[in-house]
């Protein structure tokens, strides 16, 4: 049975066609509020339903309706494959007794399915009157009581599959969230889980109008708990706090790198000590390496000696610049001064000699 209520629209028709197409192997009886008129012909809405639902779906065998006070039956034979021969018979029935005494006295249409004889026996009964058939069967035969021949043989089906699963939905509640607005996300926390164990859960959504929807069952394996950042290195871990002065891997400080571009001192020492050069000579001979006794391997000692020699070379170069500055500029100034003196002397001598000759 597939039913559409009052106020049928295109969306409802599309839904009914979708349901019928999803179950082509099932015999379908359609029920509408309004389909046949009191004259026994289809209402314009009924004609629309006949063209758009009854004809396209070969599994439809009957249509039930009401709205109009009457009892009518319309039978149509339909050629589904277009070969000119009818392939199915559709029984369209109207049964409505609301205009009778006491609002119809509760008469209603009954369908009795006789699967052994492949037929449906139709009649009308009122529990209020405890009486069968609103219309007298002798005066109005086949109006309230008649027979429909229909193949009711059970179809044999075989289901083949390579997988079979059973979902068990329990009532062990994890949490409940109420008054969740449409489009919002509901959250619940599942506590006291064991690490490494598999758990399954599902969700049920319901509204105030008896609507309810249930999700599939999802599974997960409980992992490790998250560790807050402030607990890393403390607490139960094996890491120990590093104490000052307790370096687990002590290493000697590397020798300072020499200045790759030493600059001369603009204020050289006017009285350089003669023993300074001797100290440098000692550094060049490698004697200054006695301060590197912290090294424990021969390779480290060789590296330090080479570094000391490089440092000594840089220091000597710097000291040489401090003591022996070039005299080129001073000599030039002296030569210029001497030339000026000679030039002035020659000029004076020339002027005197010139005057004496004139006298």
What brief labels describe this structure?
Metallo-depent_PP-like; STPP_CPPED1; 359 residues; alpha/beta; 5 helices; peptidoglycan-anchor; four-stranded antiparallel beta sheet; five-stranded mixed beta sheet; transmembrane helix; 19% strand; Transcription Regulator spoIIAA; single chain
Explain how this protein is built:
The protein has 359 residues and is an alpha/beta fold. Among the domains are: 148 residues, Transcription Regulator spoIIAA (2-Layer Sandwich); 48 residues; 34 residues. 26% of the residues lie in helices and 19% in strands. A five-stranded mixed sheet has the order 1-2-3-5-4, with helices on one face. Strands 6, 7, 8 and 9 form a four-stranded antiparallel sheet that branches. A two-stranded antiparallel ribbon has the order 10-13. The termini are far apart.
Brief digest:
With 359 residues, this protein is an alpha/beta fold. It is 26% helix and 19% strand. Strands 1-2-3-5-4 form a 5-stranded mixed beta sheet, with helices on one face. Strands 6, 7, 8 and 9 form a 4-stranded antiparallel beta sheet that branches.
Supply the helix-strand structural class: alpha/beta
Largest β sheet strand count, sense and barrel closure: 5 strands, mixed
Please give the count of helices.
5
* Order of strands across the main sheet: 1-2-3-5-4
Helix content: 25-40%
The count of DSSP E runs of length 2 or more, i.e. the number of strands, is: 13
Helix/strand order, N-terminal first: EHEHEEEEEEEEEEEHHH
Average of pLDDT: 80
Corresponding CATH architecture of the domain at 2-149:
2-Layer Sandwich
Q: Low-confidence segments, ≥5 residues, pLDDT <50?
A: 272-296, 317-323
Q: What name does CATH use for the topology of the domain at 2-149?
A: Transcription Regulator spoIIAA
Protein name: Gram-positive cocci surface proteins LPxTG domain-containing protein
Region (Disordered): 218-322
Keywords: Cell wall, Membrane, Peptidoglycan-anchor, Secreted, Signal, Transmembrane, Transmembrane helix
Transmembrane segments: 332-351
